[in-house]
Amino acid sequence: MKKLFSIVGFLLIAFITFSLFYYFYQRHIYVITDDAFQMADVVSVSTQDASGKIVKLFKKEYESVSKEEPLFKVDDSLYRKDVEILKAKLESLKQKKKELSEKLSRLKEQLPADVKISKENLKALEKKLNQLKYQELMEKTNYETSTQKAESSLKAAEKGLEAAKVSFNHWKNQYNRYKRLYKKRIISKEQLEEVELAYKEALYKLESAKARLQAAKGDLENAKSLKNRIAIIRKQQEEVKNKIEALKEQVKISKANLKKINELSHSIRQLEEDIKSIESQIEKAKILLSHTLVKSPVEGFIAKKWKEEGDFISPGLPVYSIYNSKSFFVLAWIEEDKIKDIKVGNKVKVELEVCKKTFKGKVYSIGTSAGSIFSLIPRDTSQGEYTKVTQRIPVKIKVEKVPPVCIKPGTNVTVYIKKRQQ
Are residues 149 and 260 in the same domain? Predict the structure, then answer.
């Protein structure tokens, strides 16, 4: 019996001796700490620039996700409507440009013909001047009729000009008011552009009314010139003067036609600029529409789901938090008096508590300051009260061949860092 107790005692002493030897040997060749944790880069996923209600969540918490895999969908009805409105406006502008271009083409073709007609009319007028001696009575009647008609047209043109001025002043005030509202971000750019379009249309009508008034005045002058023709019949010395007046009228008509061509060309150029602007807006609206379907920027696992279907979100508010398993590393906090034994590249044994397995790794980064320096309330030793506390330095460790099932950021780890060779 005594022999048995002796053997057991010997074995117990041997075991304790070996354990102590192993314990101190381990700490002789390794820097050991259990103040270590699994870490990984966490990405918060939100909409880039779209806002709205979440209509579909494609992933649940803790599910794996591939890069560019859809995560959630935001209600895109408003964005689709914006695209449709812009497309309709674009088609309207293109149609208007087509109409104005056709009108401009006709004017350019008609202008030489009008000049030719003006010359022919001048010749006819000279010929008719020789016949006025025999048509004096007829010309008097024609003079009275033409004068009444021209005066009636002039009154109608003046009324039309007044109405155009009222409309122009109204839309001018509206346009100025909408510009101020737009600067204050009270109205949208589309509303401002609609009022701007109405303002330009009113301006165009005003210019047209002025042109009609000028034409009516010209018609009245033409009618009154009939009396001059009668005077020419009576007084041959007035013949040349009437010819010059008639020629001037034709020049005015030619200039008026040239002015219309310039106005149409300017309107077409403005429409082209508007079309480019709308096309640019359509491209931006399509991009915004595409951003209502949010995809994963990285491959990894869903760490946290912050929103549910039906919730309203805006840019910057996270819907998912994803950690990238490929960025997995271990962060160990090493006591300051042991950091001298560690260098980048040291081999490491890592025990992951979550799966009770050991893996190999290497030190790839050593902190340059203690973690306490970043505390929210740092220690104040200015009053002379001081207790020495061993500080810890962060050390990052890259671990090899860790299966995804063992990667749980935030869980505990025990690390054995092989000391550097002296």
Answer: yes
